[in-house]
Amino acid sequence: MTATTSIIGAPVDRIDGAEKVRGAALYAAEHPVDQPVHAFPLQAEITRGRITGIDPAEAMSEPGVIAVLTHENAPELASAQDAELAILQSPEIAFHGQLIGAVLAESVEAARRAAQLVHVGYEQQAHDVDLHPARPDLVKPELVNGGFRTDTAEGDVDAALASAAVVVDEVYTTPQEHNNPLEPHATIASWTDGDLTLYDSTQGVHWVRESIAAVFGLDQQRIHVVCPHVGGGFGAKGVPHAHVVLAAMAARLVAPRPVKLVLTRQQMFTIVGYRTGTLQRLRLGSDAAGRLTAISHDAVSQTSRIKEFVEQTAVPTRTMYAAPNRRTTHRVAELDVPVPSWMRAPGECPGMFGLEVAVDEMAIACGLDPVEFRIRNEPDTDPSTGRPFSSRNLVACLREGAQRFGWAQRDPAPRSGRDGRWLVGTGVASSTYPVFSMPGTRATIRARPDGRYRVLIGAADLGTGAWTALTQIAADALGVEMSEIQLSIGDTDLPYASGAGGSTGITCWGSAIVDAARRLRAQLPNGEPIPDEGIEVTGTLPDNPYAGQMAMHSFGAQFAEVRVHADTGEVRVPRMLGIFAAGRMVNAKTARSQLLGGMTMGLSMALHEHSVVDPRYGHVVNHDFAGYHIATNADIGEIEVDWIDEHDPYVNPMGTKGIGELGIVGTAAAIANAAHHATGIRVRDLPITLDRFLT
Amino acid sequence: MRPFRYQHAPDIGSAVSALAEAPEAAYLAGGTNLVDLMKLEVAVPDLLVDVRELTSDRIEAHPDFVRIGAAVTNSALAADPVIRRRFPMLSQAVLSGASGQLRNLATTGGNLLQRTRCPYFQDLNTPCNKREPGTGCSAREGFQRDHAILGASEACIATHPSDMAVALAALDAVVNTEGPRGPRAIPLVDLHRLPGDEPERDTVLEHGELITSVDVPQLDFATNSRYRKARDRASFAFALVSVAAAVDTADGVVRDVRLALGGVAHKPWRATDAEAALRGAEASVEEFRRAADAELAGARPLPGNEFKIPLARNMIVGVLSELSGVPR
Amino acid sequence: MDTEITLVVDGVEHSLVVDTRTTVLDALRERLGITSPKKGCDQGQCGACTLLLGDRRVNSCLMLAVAYDGANLRTADGLADADMHPLQRAFIEHDAFQCGYCTPGQVVSAVGMMQEMREGEPSAVTADAAELSDEVRERMSGNLCRCGAYANMIPAIVEVAQR
Predict the structure, then answer these.
(1) Chain A residues with CB inside 8 Å of C123's CB?
(2) A633: nearest CA in chain B?
(3) What keywords appear on the UniProt entry (chain B) (predicted)?
(4) Which residues contact A136 (CB under 8 A, 6 or more apart)?
(5) Which one, out of A128, A287, A450, B168, has a CA that is 20 to 30 A from the CA of A265?
């Protein structure tokens, strides 16, 4: 076996492409099962209180209805530790739309109809869903998502601000947003002799198994989770949500028949997590030369009273720019709302909107070009830890991007660009995302004497291209053609893999495959042929000796051209450019798509996305695709994506950093900054809708 | 969806009688709005009478009017060469609504009868006077972005979602129907109602009254017409405000004009006050603005939709300027 | 209320019993096991269920199956007799999808859309669009993609439309 490197980095077509363009790739609800029972969830119609009675009689008399599952007949769960998952254990209601049962029927139509015929009595209590920064009851959490410290403080921010030549002190907000993968969450559950099989749309089959085993008090080996393809997740399928428990409970009622549960689009606005709204106060101080002397970022978000999730909004501010005085804080309002969770780049995505717009405002206040201002405030080491960066190429991204975007020709004056009735402006913002690692992944390689290799790992492909990239990594590590590799993923019968989250997939899974290949070579030290009986080796994700010694992050620079119509305020983004520095790219084609997809979702966030909560009812009013707008094809202009050739030997042996989330970080700020350049109007609250520009 | 019977009727008369005998029955044409509302149980018919093959799917051009069969699909209407030549704004209005695949199913009759997209109307868990009379209007104190600024009532602030109907309102179209009491012709501007205290009634149609065709009278200067729509996405979204206009100018003076607004009221809003102010006025930005202000003087916005007043004003000025060749 | 109907899907005739409430999409996915068309919203708001009815693209989630007895339907799985439709190849080459869930609907919609363009049917931007890519953007806006592959779909579709 001779190592080749040409496979890594090559723009290889997706190996699952032919299946996907025909619609032949199987998603969770599509796995053929015999005689499935269809489940339709029942949801609380009040926001806080308790159920006083449930009358399923009318529903049961509907033709085709098999059973009505409620807290009155649900199995007792072994663990109620995760209150999001511990459904149907009591009559208590903690948020509007909480799962309170399901109707099981022979057809989708009958189940959905009968759900309207289950009569539920409630005792209502006053509820509170109002996320407001002046709340006296904001809580300081122990840690924030990702295990980061809640607050940090260096130097004396207040004194530095008091003596700063220029100060920016503004509040920025991002609204509640929903992941909305195109494939609705779906689970097919069946019990056979006490063993549970789940076809589930998930970013991590082993994570589902761990959670569900704990909830039902089962040995993990008795749960089999299958998921070869995921129709998008963006964090919403990172951990199992309550509907998976509901499907498994329902399947127990009708065992051994399988139960199929597919959420409606509306239900996805309650049950599967969301990005909390954030309120961010940014205070920046600078000297007369445009060097930051103080950075303060205070973030407020919401969580559900039943389970804490705290968006790590201010965390990127700890790393981005140099300043001797710095303060970051997180506070959270515990409300009668559904449980928030991960949505693409939790923390970085909303937090970098606040920081990068504030930096734009500061650059302008200092009379400096916003690209130059960022370069001027580049730190030598990680400001929060003092550790050296394993690699940091933000400045290279800014310079390369500025050159390619034609930034030098820009007239910095707001409202200086015009094309007919359109006001035209350009803006820039930085991107960043940490290099995480998740423990425990193993990969098995089975080598056969015919030169073919099976690579087994419980990884997930939710559109990231993992099917293809992992095959490339295995081929490269084994020194063979991709066609010699047969990869299996998405099944708990395969070796344990951490889930697709935190942009760790390729890094963790790939490292385990590389380790397995190394072990295989060690068994054949002199290039001996593979014995007739074959060889099986299992590799693990090695510990990183540099962890804790170096700061490991990806960076990028995003540029946007924005047009705002002088009459209507309509906002268009005809052109974007993203230049990233994220270590080694495994597949130039799918990597570009990942970054492009992130920027596209960032544009959608900038212009459209807003889950509108009605405080009287506590639910999201615009809970469908007609009300909750995501970008359409017509909203997207030309988007150019490229990266700096970055070699980082410290992050892992492959030199990869993860790219699933980096692309969405900073996009909204670049667009907001460009909109300001176009119009002179500073929008600090997303989304940037036409009414902001009307006069 | 509640269980229902489905049947074809051999002719229009039988279809009308079938509905006359069944108070909860409904006609099914393209189904793009009805089937959705049935899934949500906002619409709960016990019988669907399929009328797709009963009414005409042809567009007949006559010298003094064009007759559009009720079964003409939105895409066929928008693509029709006569419509595009004689009434460009009608084609543009249809094309600005929905998506390519929806326009292939949706019909002319159905488009006029689609129901409001007010999210509270579509949600059985929130009060709504239109869906359930007497329960209250959730939007009035709630989410109001898409809601009416003109002609609304205490009971309802919903808007009519059709783009096509706005162009037809400007064009003085007439809706032909067959009903239990025989045929009648209803001016399009009178087809849809303002909500008043009966918001559950969208139109003046009786139960069982079937739209069979729409006549668009010839209007020579409609060749100089335009439909402009502003919305929260570049495509595939309902109007925040839309403007349908046709203008006839000579020697810098407005000789005649047709103007209607969408997204602002419970019905397509024919801007008669603005039209009156414009006829005989100088074709200038100032006069266009004055006319717009005259129309919008009666607007009663709520905090969530105040922006529609400057938006509508600017759009009226913009479209009229464009059609009159007035530089900005 | 059960009714027996016939649907011709990708050239194959299927007889099946449906509830009057059953949509064409659910008839295919739940009754016939034909899962190429996807359910993304079930309300005509995402386009994942797009099929060709004859040669017209339609949202199958809003079509009651009883009303389409005898209909001739085509899914992404039946666009080409053998191998792949050129558009499907272009989608793979340009990486015009990621998770693949909206993809069959995108592909079918693009095939229907190209036919509409060939027949001279206008779009909302026909009067203003300088570029074919802008035409395609507008015409493809009934198919949502959450992975954000639009910018790759455009060159894929334009390339095939120009052939």
Answers:
(1) none
(2) B235
(3) Oxidoreductase
(4) none
(5) A128
